[in-house]
Amino acid sequence: MKQKENRLLGLMNKYQHKQPGELYSCDELSMKKYRLREKIQFVQRNKKGLNLSDNDVERVIYILKSVKDLRLLYRGCKWETIVLAIMVAVKEESTGSLVTFRDYKIIKQYKLKERIYATVISRLWKLERKNKPISEIDHLKGSSNPAMTW
Predict the structure, then answer these.
(1) Residue 148 domain-assigned?
(2) For the domain that residue 128 is a member of, what is the CATH number?
(3) Tell me: the pLDDT tens digits for 39-89?
(4) DSSP per-residue letters across the chain
(5) Domains contained in the chain, number
Protein backbone atom coordinates (compact mmCIF):
# COMPACT_ATOMS: atom_id res chain seq x y z
CA MET A 1 0.00 0.00 0.00
CA LYS A 2 2.83 2.36 0.89
CA GLN A 3 4.53 1.68 -2.46
CA LYS A 4 1.36 2.47 -4.37
CA GLU A 5 0.95 5.80 -2.55
CA ASN A 6 4.57 6.74 -3.21
CA ARG A 7 4.17 5.88 -6.90
CA LEU A 8 1.03 8.00 -7.15
CA LEU A 9 2.70 10.92 -5.37
CA GLY A 10 5.67 10.62 -7.71
CA LEU A 11 3.42 10.70 -10.76
CA MET A 12 1.52 13.71 -9.41
CA ASN A 13 4.75 15.62 -8.84
CA LYS A 14 6.01 14.65 -12.28
CA TYR A 15 3.00 15.97 -14.16
CA GLN A 16 2.34 19.09 -12.10
CA HIS A 17 5.58 20.70 -13.20
CA LYS A 18 7.00 21.59 -16.57
CA GLN A 19 9.16 18.80 -17.92
CA PRO A 20 12.44 19.34 -19.78
CA GLY A 21 11.73 19.79 -23.46
CA GLU A 22 8.10 20.80 -22.94
CA LEU A 23 7.37 23.53 -25.44
CA TYR A 24 4.56 25.52 -23.83
CA SER A 25 3.34 25.67 -20.30
CA CYS A 26 -0.32 25.22 -19.45
CA ASP A 27 -0.51 28.53 -17.63
CA GLU A 28 -3.63 30.38 -18.79
CA LEU A 29 -1.95 33.80 -18.86
CA SER A 30 0.95 32.59 -20.97
CA MET A 31 -1.47 30.93 -23.40
CA LYS A 32 -3.38 34.22 -23.77
CA LYS A 33 -0.10 36.01 -24.51
CA TYR A 34 0.84 33.31 -27.01
CA ARG A 35 -2.51 33.59 -28.81
CA LEU A 36 -2.25 37.39 -28.92
CA ARG A 37 1.26 37.12 -30.40
CA GLU A 38 -0.10 34.64 -32.94
CA LYS A 39 -2.81 37.12 -34.00
CA ILE A 40 -0.30 39.97 -34.22
CA GLN A 41 1.99 37.82 -36.39
CA PHE A 42 -0.99 37.03 -38.62
CA VAL A 43 -1.57 40.77 -39.09
CA GLN A 44 2.13 41.38 -39.80
CA ARG A 45 2.27 38.52 -42.35
CA ASN A 46 -0.88 39.54 -44.21
CA LYS A 47 -0.64 43.34 -44.20
CA LYS A 48 0.68 43.35 -47.78
CA GLY A 49 -2.35 41.39 -48.97
CA LEU A 50 -4.56 44.37 -48.08
CA ASN A 51 -1.93 47.12 -48.59
CA LEU A 52 -2.11 48.25 -44.97
CA SER A 53 0.24 50.96 -43.75
CA ASP A 54 2.21 50.64 -40.52
CA ASN A 55 -0.20 53.04 -38.85
CA ASP A 56 -3.13 50.81 -39.85
CA VAL A 57 -1.33 47.76 -38.48
CA GLU A 58 -0.86 49.52 -35.14
CA ARG A 59 -4.57 50.32 -35.03
CA VAL A 60 -5.47 46.68 -35.73
CA ILE A 61 -3.13 45.53 -32.95
CA TYR A 62 -4.71 48.05 -30.57
CA ILE A 63 -8.17 46.65 -31.37
CA LEU A 64 -6.95 43.08 -30.89
CA LYS A 65 -5.52 43.97 -27.48
CA SER A 66 -8.73 45.70 -26.42
CA VAL A 67 -11.04 42.82 -27.42
CA LYS A 68 -10.54 40.08 -24.86
CA ASP A 69 -12.36 37.29 -26.70
CA LEU A 70 -12.82 37.25 -30.47
CA ARG A 71 -15.64 34.73 -30.14
CA LEU A 72 -17.80 37.59 -28.89
CA LEU A 73 -17.57 39.09 -32.35
CA TYR A 74 -18.56 35.99 -34.32
CA ARG A 75 -18.73 32.41 -33.09
CA GLY A 76 -19.15 30.60 -36.37
CA CYS A 77 -15.81 31.25 -38.04
CA LYS A 78 -12.08 31.01 -37.41
CA TRP A 79 -10.13 33.69 -35.60
CA GLU A 80 -8.18 34.43 -38.79
CA THR A 81 -11.40 35.47 -40.52
CA ILE A 82 -12.37 37.75 -37.63
CA VAL A 83 -8.93 39.40 -37.58
CA LEU A 84 -9.12 39.85 -41.35
CA ALA A 85 -12.52 41.55 -40.95
CA ILE A 86 -10.96 43.97 -38.46
CA MET A 87 -8.11 44.62 -40.91
CA VAL A 88 -10.61 45.38 -43.69
CA ALA A 89 -12.53 47.76 -41.40
CA VAL A 90 -9.37 49.68 -40.51
CA LYS A 91 -8.42 49.85 -44.20
CA GLU A 92 -11.86 51.21 -45.11
CA GLU A 93 -11.65 53.79 -42.34
CA SER A 94 -8.16 54.98 -43.32
CA THR A 95 -8.81 55.17 -47.07
CA GLY A 96 -12.36 56.46 -46.81
CA SER A 97 -13.64 54.08 -49.47
CA LEU A 98 -15.23 50.65 -49.39
CA VAL A 99 -13.19 47.52 -50.01
CA THR A 100 -14.37 45.35 -52.90
CA PHE A 101 -14.22 41.83 -51.52
CA ARG A 102 -13.70 40.04 -54.84
CA ASP A 103 -10.57 42.10 -55.63
CA TYR A 104 -8.44 40.70 -52.80
CA LYS A 105 -6.98 37.21 -52.88
CA ILE A 106 -6.52 37.12 -49.10
CA ILE A 107 -10.24 37.73 -48.51
CA LYS A 108 -11.08 34.77 -50.75
CA GLN A 109 -8.41 32.64 -49.09
CA TYR A 110 -9.84 33.06 -45.58
CA LYS A 111 -13.46 32.98 -46.84
CA LEU A 112 -14.50 36.34 -45.45
CA LYS A 113 -18.04 37.10 -46.56
CA GLU A 114 -19.79 40.45 -46.40
CA ARG A 115 -22.32 39.07 -43.92
CA ILE A 116 -19.56 37.94 -41.55
CA TYR A 117 -17.79 41.28 -42.00
CA ALA A 118 -20.94 43.27 -41.18
CA THR A 119 -21.64 41.18 -38.08
CA VAL A 120 -18.08 41.46 -36.77
CA ILE A 121 -17.96 45.23 -37.25
CA SER A 122 -21.36 45.87 -35.70
CA ARG A 123 -20.51 43.74 -32.66
CA LEU A 124 -17.11 45.41 -32.37
CA TRP A 125 -18.81 48.80 -32.40
CA LYS A 126 -21.27 47.64 -29.71
CA LEU A 127 -18.40 46.38 -27.54
CA GLU A 128 -16.57 49.66 -27.90
CA ARG A 129 -19.63 51.67 -26.97
CA LYS A 130 -20.31 49.40 -24.01
CA ASN A 131 -16.75 49.75 -22.71
CA LYS A 132 -16.42 53.47 -23.46
CA PRO A 133 -19.69 55.28 -22.82
CA ILE A 134 -20.30 58.66 -24.37
CA SER A 135 -18.58 61.28 -22.25
CA GLU A 136 -20.12 64.51 -21.09
CA ILE A 137 -18.06 66.47 -23.60
CA ASP A 138 -19.53 64.52 -26.52
CA HIS A 139 -22.97 65.01 -25.04
CA LEU A 140 -22.44 68.77 -24.66
CA LYS A 141 -21.16 69.11 -28.22
CA GLY A 142 -24.40 67.60 -29.43
CA SER A 143 -22.85 64.78 -31.40
CA SER A 144 -25.61 62.23 -31.60
CA ASN A 145 -23.57 59.65 -33.47
CA PRO A 146 -19.91 59.78 -32.43
CA ALA A 147 -17.46 58.03 -34.72
CA MET A 148 -15.48 55.01 -33.66
CA THR A 149 -12.39 56.00 -31.73
CA TRP A 150 -9.96 53.35 -32.83
Answers:
(1) no
(2) 1.10.472.10
(3) 999 999 999 999 999 999 999 999 999 998 899 899 989 999 999 999 999
(4) -HHHHHHHHHHHHHHHSPPTT--S---HHHHHHHHHHHHHHHHHHHTTTTT--HHHHHHHHHHHHH-S-GGGT-SSS-HHHHHHHHHHHHHHHHHSS---GGG-HHHHHTT--HHHHHHHHHHHHHHHHHHSPPPHHHHHHT-SSPPP--
(5) 1
